[in-house]
Amino acid sequence: MRLLALGIKLQQLVPFVWALLGVCLSPMAIAQKTSSNFLLYSIAGTTGLGLGVAKEMKNGLILRAELTDMLKSIQTSQDGIDYQGKIELASTALYADWHPFDSVFHISTGLNIKPSNVSLAATSKNGLITLNGQAYPLSSSQGLNANISFPTFMPYLGLGWGFEHVATYTGFSFNTDLGFDFGKMNANLSPTPGLTSLPGFNDNLNAQSQKLNASVSGIRFFPVVKFQLGYAY
User: Fold this and answer.
1) Is the pTM for the entire model greater than 0.70?
2) Count of domains forming the chain
3) Could you list the residue range(s) of the whole structural domain that residue 31 is in?
4) Mean pLDDT, consecutive 10-residue segments, the chain of 233 residues?
């Protein structure tokens, strides 16, 4: 199933990234020394759009908390069934960044809480829907929905560039994160009551639901690509 295409297409972020780079390379982005240790930043990426806050600790680790969200329409197919619906690109995440050698490069670990979910509705072909090889009539008052959920907690591992020296500089700065959220997705199919009365429908529904769940559960990681523009104060 083409669920590896979850999230915002990266090419849609290109204009936003160029705008961020333009700001970061402008004179306004020149950092100045300060004694602050907080940074507020905006986010755009595969987890959606949102805001974050960062704080540098005494041991040099930078702790970050982020809240992102976005709805995106999708169309996909699995085992002969076409689906259309929405992905909720939601993320409440906590990260710890380690900057080796006091550089802009950082290694990050973290936890994504209440991540994305996918809600889909099956579409008919010539008024029919095929479950486990068996075709059934699908009227305008009937429907078959698929829900694909991520685990409540997904660990994160990645790397990035930027957001160094939060405690010693003020001004605008740019950051990027590349990594993966890890976890096992689950899926289920739920029909309208009218369909369940059709001969053999429930057995074929269960078989089809198992196929869908096996397809998505094989995806054990979700790619994370994010761009952030922040201001330390």
Assistant:
1) yes
2) 1
3) 3-232
4) 41 43 40 65 93 89 93 84 86 93 92 85 83 84 86 94 81 93 90 86 91 87 93 84
Residues 6+ apart with CB under 8 A from 163: 39, 41, 54, 62, 64, 97, 106, 173, 175, 228, 230
Amino acid at 11: Q
Distance CA 150, CA 96 (A): 22
CATH at residue 146: 2.40.160
Q: What is the pLDDT of residue 196?
A: 86
